[in-house]
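We examine the record.
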Amino acid sequence: MQYPGEPDDRCGVKHMHYTERLSLRTEGFCDIRDITDGVLGIRERSNITEGLVTIFCPGSTGALTTIEYESGALHDLKGAIERLAPADGHYEHNERWGDGNGFSHVRAALMKPSLSIPVVDGALTLGTWQQIVFIDFDNRPRKRELVVQISGER
């Protein structure tokens, strides 16, 4: 679903907002998905050439970041996350709710639910080997709806 914003004509600059959702199904347990192409497509449809892309994950067990999306780097990231917030650790959340995903909430809080990337000359300013990834930390498969909002000028 698309939500094109109205131009803001303050100071003679037409500032636009464009919002679209990116849907994906995940497996949980540190499932890392490359969403770069989806975000690039949304930027293209927005026609915004100068501004900022913000990607947000509604929910408290998912996160967004960038990484070189290759098996070695992904393995290393998963290992680092496991050392920071072990899946088999003791979590008060599990004691209170009994759903066994306390580690998921801690991991997501450490990694953060949003990511912003500048748009310059119609392109996201990603490095050569830098991809945008969504990480699902929950302890079950999920259907996720990420919000991608682009603000800037056409």
